[in-house]
Fold:
Amino acid sequence: MPRRDDIQTILLIGSGPIVIGQACEFDYSGTQACRALTEEGYRVVLINSNPATIMTDPETADEIYLEPLTVEACRAVIEQERPDALLPTLGGQTALNLARELALGGALEEYGVELIGADLEAIERAEDRERFHGLMMDHGMAVPRGGFARDWEEARRIQAITGFPVIVRPAYTLGGTGGGVAKTSEEFEALARGGMAASPIGEILVEESVIGWKEFELEVMRDRADNCVVVCSIENLDPMGVHTGDSITVAPQQTLSDREYQEMRDDAFTVIRAVGVETGGSNIQFAVEPATGRQLVIEKNPRVSRSSALAPKATGFPIAKIAARLAVGYTLDEIPNDITGETPASFEPTIDYVVAKFPRFDFEKFPGADEALTTSMKSVGETMAIGRTFGEAIQKGLRGLEAGAAGLLDEAARELPEDELADGLEEPSPGRVHLVAEAIRREWPVERVRVATGIDPWFLHRIGEVVRRADGVAERAPEDLSPLEWSELKGEGYSDFQLGRMWGRPEQAVRELRRASGVTPAFKVVDTCAGEFEAQTPYFYSSYDPENEAGPLGGSKIVILGGGPNRIGQGIEFDYCCVQAAIALRESGRRVVMVNCNPETVSTDYDVSDRLYFEPLTLEDVSAILAREDPDGVLVQYGGQTPLELVDALHAAGVPIVGTSPDAIDACEDRDRFQRLMEELGIPQPRPGTARSPEEAREEAERIGYPVLLRPSYVLGGRGMVVVRSPEALERYLAESMRVTGEKPLLIDEFLEGAVEYDVDAIADGERVVIGGIMQHVEAAGIHSGDSTCVLPPIDIDPEVEETIRNHTRRIGRALEVRGLMNIQYAVRDGRVHVLEVNPRASRTVPFVSKAVGVPLAKLGARAMVGESLDELGLEADLVPMTVAVKAPVLPFDRFPGVDPVLGPEMHSTGEVIGLDADPEVALRKALLGAGIDLRAAIRGGVLFDFAGRDADALADVAAGMAERGIALAATPEAAEALTERGVAVERVSPDGERGAVRRVREGEFGLVVSVPREDGAGSPVRRAALVARVPCLTEPRNTARAAAAAEAGGVALPVRSLHSWTAAVRS
Amino acid sequence: MSGDANEALLALEDGWSAVGRPVGAPGTTTGEFVFNTCLSGYQEVLTDPSYSGQIVVMTYPLIGNYGIVHEDDESDAPQVEGFVMRRCVREPSSWRADEALPDWLRRHGVVAIEGVDTRALTRRLRTRGALRGVITTEAMEPHEAVQRARKVPPMTGRDLTGAVTCEAPRVEGEGRWSVAAWDFGMKRNIVRRLVAGGCRVERYPAETPPEAILEREPDGLFVSNGPGDPAATERAIASLRRVGELAPGLPTFGICLGHQLLALAHGGETYKLKFGHHGGNHPVQDLRTGHIDITSHNHGFAVREGRDRRPGGRGESRRIVAGAPELEITHVNLYDGTVEGFRHVERPLFAVQYHPEAAPGPHDARHHFADFVAAIRARSEGGAGRS
Structure:
């Protein structure tokens, strides 16, 4: 069927900020969709609040609205742009929900907008659990046995069918409150009665438990002519009970016989047809009972999902790109498969390798969080690995995770007592796969491990093969290994580092011995067809199978090292920079080789570079690629900390690093060198110190003067950073945290209490420095810059201070001969400008600044890195923002109920949003709205204050302002006393009890909670209650003051304006 | 090189060789190497009689995952000459598994090898075409093995149906319609699908004279899949031509070799494909509706397409089987445009090159069995006077 000509303008909704469960996979799919639709000649309008996305770059769509993803904003965009169609299936659950609300609220009908891809009926059929179940049964699909009950008799009748264990889910309670698993009649009666009481409509779903069953997913595509194909099958290593996003998964499915698999495939098509997803990608989840093979349909997403981003990387089939074309009328046979170039997209990819995906967790950032993996997703990123054997895939994946383990066998697990190992196997956790390997190493029977973990014996046997391959290796000398033995070890995925640890040899020495044996990896192609057709698209992975298919890429080429799995502090912003670098370098006539192992990203879209290596970013894996490609330069400064870790070793090996020199990078990372440099330049720094014993810590803290900022030097990513304000607090820290020793010193810095922080992003060519933007943090110093709300340009900066910042930036840039991007953090107190840190690399704020100034800094930075001057790049003077831009963080605390949700020197946010407006207050309101806080509604809903005396002065003004506007105010005793003393009338609320603060927060009596952490760092039950009840909670006084002031700015309906219109206004 | 209990040797006629580990029975085997791209379904592949004379290379690197399930056999025993895997899984995991793949291979005397770079081998077969070759677990130098490979008879010109057909006529299933199935190495799932469609299947050995079959007055005729070069299967072609003369109105359905034989019987041509179609992901389009089925394939030969040059034809040229203008092409492969199905313009006769019975592979094309039964019903209910 031909392309539809009756529609011209198509609206796409993005997925907004990165949160747990919705990450950059939707930038990948959204970008693909935008490009596909633009290529087809449609006018594409996009709304997304996340500035760190490639999809919101001006080239991606015709009109881009960086606006909060609310129904109101979408409606305003529709009113302004009058799209003919809305494609709701490519922006995750966020876009689907918004599309549904827009449809139900009549906006689509009012403006004549057609839902394409999936209509309202299909969305409703898939999303409403009861309707979905009914629909499945009507079509003869098996679903978990069970039913809905409104009284005990009925509940008991249903339970008689389901047996035990049984799951009880009360209807319409938040986050599964009141639900659970019952194993006995007594437990069931208590749960059922309690559940019916908890449900506002007195209803519970009683359902058979499928925990421990095998879990599968099929990625399905359907076109308007009802052609259906399975793009990829995925099997979870962790059985049902662990969220798919938190499971180790493999593709293709491994343990179903063809007969069973084809039945599942038939069922998947029945489901997609029954739900009525007209075109595009869908993801259908199945559970299979291991002992009987009984297959149940669990759920279906009528949209592109996380797995739909994994599947294209696993198979080479670009789901989103094709889904977009299907939505505008094409059929699968009319779309070419771009990997083969000759065959159509109406086929099922087949692969000749094993793919493994691993979730990346960041629990160390959330002390107190429950690390057990459940049905609620907790991982913050993922990595994928491809191998010709299961061992290659799984061990590559584990080292690509950068989570401390070099592969399956983990040294820490080796020391574990038997009973702890047994307990560890019982509970799904981030490190469980290492415990499985350890149990197998100890020769526990597979059956015992299976019973403990529920993991299919197939996986246990494969893990066993990997483990057994290393038996006796430690006792051998590496010099004695035959080439066959080397290739067998490498063929099970063992890294040189792992082997070196077994032998007590350095990684490099192992590498040299191995290479001397002639054993080096070959690179194979991901081609969608298992070699049946010639591939046009150079998408490679390494293997120790003999035949290499990757001859070096010709021409002048740069290798870009990506950032690996997303984690807190290193996320989509860096992938954004890598992608921009690839685009810019290709535009300037160079060829680009991308190396990365994060399947969610745009950088691992094979269209982005001339050649993609889907490989872990370890020294070994990267070196093998560089040995093969011998590039003109390697770009390490854009992928965050991951590639920077490799700089020294690569530099030492003679690899040409483009841009700022490795020496300059070292000068910024080495504490002593940096201190000397700042002294030479005469730029003040907070007073630094280092302690190698508790005594030294006390002395240094006294010398520097309290408050001080403490951080252990041996952990990365700001973990364990705290501000200590008194000798007593220091003692508490020393007692609670790890030992301070000569090997593990404690870094102690002067803490500039109350200072204002500024972040500067600049670009330089070795001689000249151009400032891209100066951002002012709304919060006082002490909040990690990644978690701060910041404003560009600064709202209230002293012109002299601004000039000093600009001068310092230029001098530092020149002194370091920075070529490319640079980020500097300053703290200003009493007019004195201190430099906190200098990062001669892409920073997290580059995309945000680029959007605000309308200049693609990462692109220009990449070209500066390869030798173009700022003059040549057309950068004459410091850049000026088009309007006021506010960045607000998005925090994942709601996923970690045990954690105190406060901001501090350690970063916690997973993502960010932007608010743009000429009025700084409107921009702030938009940013917070984008981050999920509707200030106007929140404050009008009544405010509860909860703080200690220290913050009284700052907050009394805020409270007084609210009181004047007639806002109902309440406060916990200490805060109430402080506010009353300062003449603000508030209702005093005791923390506990029937009408206590906690109870009332939980019941939704307040629209906003302002709860500032106490100096002693004690947690607050009020904050936790707000978290659980999803009530907005502000925890920092300055931020609260700004928020309160901005609450009514811009009126009820906030204006929307496209990026192109801002640019046009500046340029004209 | 070889001869070590832990080594097996693979060699091709073009001189390529690789050392791997033996998995199945000891010994030496020869045949035509072809690759199969199915991710699952190795057991159905191994037991498919159409692979007679061939050594199959599985492109998916982990084979044996769910073991062997006896009820999934497509015939009584393995039919391949040999089997090549990247890695053979020794501990299957499936509630249905009866035994492990290596044990079963050994038990049935199948020589198999693992530890070979099957992707390299596949790429070689793709670029050079199907090659003759050897697998051996015996002491043999690679050059010797290559010589052996060059002595393997080429597939072109070989009629292999005699070795895989049933020995005597037999009846399978019960049903309203009686279908005579000419067995050239028929897969079991074809029988199952016919029975499921309400047919009583009377299986006849390949050499059964057509008169003997027609004497039983079947309601329909099925022409089965099978191995070898269709053009060399002369006796079957002649038999089918005879059926056309004696019972032109008999509803007839052919699959794979059956498709090729029916084309040849009507004057069509067949030719050898470079490396054939062996997999479960080929898109086949029905030219009449535009609908696409993802289909299961296993064939090394194809029916040649021709142009309809008859004068007075309508403006657009019909796609027909070369040399057989009454056979109109109904299905084509979207990968390479080859003929995947045809129907007779006047008679209730149609055939497909792929495997609607699947096993292994997707079930998309099962509807052809219903079409066949519908043709039988239509004739029996409406057109008794036609034959």
In short: The radius of gyration of chain A is 29 Å. Chain A touches chain B through 55 residues (CB under 8 Å). The mean pLDDT of chain A is 93. DSSP finds 39 helices and 38 strands in chain A.
